[in-house]
Each structure stands twice: as C-alpha cells, then as structure tokens.
Design a protein that fits this description.
about 260 residues, 15 strands
Amino acid sequence: MLSTFSKAQDCTPKNIAFKTGEQLNYDVYYNLKKLWVPAGKVRFQVYDSTLNGQPCFLLDGKGKSLKSYDYFFKVRDHYVSVVNKKTLEPYKFERSVMEGGFRLYYDYRFDNDNQKAIVFSKKGDTTQGQEIDFPTCSFDVMTTVYYARCLDFSKLAINDTIPLTMMIDKEIFDDVYIRYKGKETIKGPNGKKYKCIKFSPLLVEGTIFNDGEDMTVYVTDDKNRIPIYVEANIAVGSIRAFLTTYKNLKYSLDAVVK
C-alpha cells in the first residue's frame, strides 16, 4: 500500500526536527561469528553556515572504524551537506570515502533553479566538472538522513511507503522509499528505554551495503526523531549502531520511558 505522500507534492518538511548545535554520537558493532564486537564510531553534527548570502544548515557526518578493526576493514568516511534551513534543499554536498581499498571523492554544486548539478572529482580542483541532472525534490545522501527525520508518520499504516528521490555517485534513483513498520520500545546501552518509530529504507548497493530493505531504523517517537538504534545486513555479515550521547536537541526528549 502506498502512503499519502507523493513526489509530485511539495516536499518541504512541515517540521524541522533539529537545530544548529545538535550532535549525535553512535557506537557501531559488527557481527563476527555470532559475536558482536565494537567496530566503529559515527558522529552527526549540525552547524550554521551561509552560501551566497543565504543562511544555511551545514550537516556534517563522520564515520570511522576503530583501530582494532582497521586491519579487517578500514573506514574513514566524511559527508557534508549545505542546505536550505526551511526546505532542506541541498546547495552543496561533499563526499570523501575510504572503505577498505576503495577511495572516492565528489564535490557537488547544485543549481536547483535549472535542476542541474556540477560534480568535481578531485579535491581542491574545481576547474573540470561534470554536469548531471538533479530534479526538484531530490536529495543527496546526507540530506536524505535528515529529511527522513522530518517526515510525518502519523497517518501511515504498517507497510505503507514514502517515496524519495536520492542521488548517489552522480546517479539519480527515483524509486527509493521508506517503509513504515510501526512502533516499538527500544532499550539503549545506557539502560534507558525509548518509544520509537520503526522504518526500513530501500538501500542502493554500494561498497558496504546490499540493495534491498536490509536496514531497520528506530527513531524517537517525539518531535526530535533522533535515530536510537540501526541494524543492517552488509556485504559480509551485519552491523548494529546505538546512540551513545547527544546534545543540543531542538525539543525535549519525550520518548524516554519513565
């Protein structure tokens, strides 16, 4: 069953679930022969920024494997998006990736009025760029994470889907969606319990993830919609990520079970 959301409608979020200064930190675990071992850390942070005189959010995400895990699969990923504060329309997106022996760098500059983007593939070099299509209501990887937090799940039935258009590595995927899977209470590593909304995004195959609905995300069932717990199957094995610390939330954390 398809949800009441449509790509043809205005994609401006009704509620921005975060503010400048928010920081979320996660511990990542890898399943090794039925044993969960610490594997990495992820951090998301929101800053104030400006671009061409326009006040913006700068969305900064970093992921790295622990030194004890580097010998197995070393990860040093950095994602940065500069977006409109009201619509989350991306103006600029930078992706710097090192995953095992794979390395990649892209710097996107979006011309949203003309539904185009210029992509630069060498860090610090903006002399040679490739033009690609970037349709209205499309999002880069980083913006998609924050946009998903702003969606309204209140009118959805279990297994309803919300369609998205996402750009990955210069390619537009207009058949991506988020599937609503109901509500559940999750216990974090700090012992606290959180009332959560549960959904599964349709993944696009890459160096770590397989394609399909192999990821489940639990976000707080309050106005913040912060991800508390994520589990996913990957190319080899599976991973889990738990929220460990947070600060500067926009709203009070009402999802904690007292």
